[in-house]
């Protein structure tokens, strides 16, 4: 297999795992005012009545902030059901991730501005910062220096002192000995992110999908072996030291989207397969999935479910049997529910995976967070 073909295959697997869905022909619906449940057609003789959302009986509060590619950042008010737009990229812009700082003032974006006229939007993103109220346009914080380079999966440390992210970049052809693969993924963090005087710190090699524990001391991530398209769930200290595997290698065909429970005792994650019994029971993946290698590129690419494992180790516990794709979730501030998105919409469920309730029946591809 040539290098070009190999790079193309991996990018289709891993970059699309981070919601870079440039080639997806299924258009993501926008969030115009017409989608708001409270919009009632008005006539001259009728006084509009604001109806509560269908999920009002759950007594949810706060907002869900979600990204959706070329349509930017939407915000769902869980109390009223109203949807608003935080940022809409210019034509041919692309946004795959957004995360709000702990003080609620700044959003970090994985954003690809429109390319020069006549060029194709490839979906390689830079890191941008913008006010959470949308009062100013995104400003670049870390920009690419190569064509095939990308910064994505940004998350803040709970104290706001660091911004963690994944960096994809090619390697120079002049390396001796030549690398097995001409590219790499590194998990990095940026101290004091809003200052322009700080520089990135590389904390882990071949790592993607970072998540920080609520107390800021631990880091969960997917360790990825690009040579055999395998990724596994790992736990480390916040600076990347002391890394250890939480599950035996190959427990799942793919894992991604980890998040810590509010007390930091467990990690919830998206995974493909039936868990430790999958080898005995047989894989649920088709022969075509196996042939293309997508079963280990990311849990985003094939039907997946939510699982939980203790940070102390032990067997994983299956939370759902939804077999959905593009899963990405976040806990409510009070820890009573988990909100998650998929290619089929926005949902909430209890932390044990029960009482799954649909919030929006629309395709959302990207990231999600639950803010006050």
How would you sum up this structure, described in words?
By secondary structure, the protein is mainly beta. The chain has a single domain, classed as Neuraminidase (6 Propeller), CATH 2.120.10.30. About 10% of the residues lie in helices and about 35% in strands. The chain contains four helices and 24 strands. A four-stranded antiparallel sheet has the order 3-2-1-24, with no helix packed on it. Strands 4-5-6-7 form a four-stranded antiparallel sheet, with no helix packed on it. A hairpin with a 6-residue loop joins strand 20 (about 330) and strand 21 (about 340). The longest helix has 15 residues, at about 5-15. The protein starts with a helix and ends with a strand. The model is unreliable at about 1-50 and about 280-295 (pLDDT under 50).
What features would you highlight for this structure?
mainly beta; 24 strands; globular; Neuraminidase; 372 residues; 4-stranded antiparallel sheet
Summarize the structure.
With 372 residues, the protein is mainly β.
Task: Supply the CATH class.
Answer: Mainly Beta
- Helical content stands at under 10%
One letter per element, helices H and strands E, the order comes to HEEEEEEEEEEEEEEEEEHHHEEEEEEE
Task: Please indicate the percent range of residues in DSSP E strands (runs of 2 or more).
Answer: 35-45%
* Domain module count: 1
Number of helices: 4
- Structural class estimated from helices and strands: mainly beta
Shape summary = globular
Strand order of the largest sheet: 3-2-1-24
Please state the second-level CATH architecture: 6 Propeller
Distance between the termini: 49 Å
CATH-defined topology: Neuraminidase
Q: Please mark out the parts with pLDDT under 50 across 5 or more consecutive residues, or reply none.
A: 1-49, 278-297
CATH 4th-level superfamily: TolB, C-terminal domain
Mean pLDDT: 83
Largest sheet: 4 strands, antiparallel
Radius of gyration: 20 Å
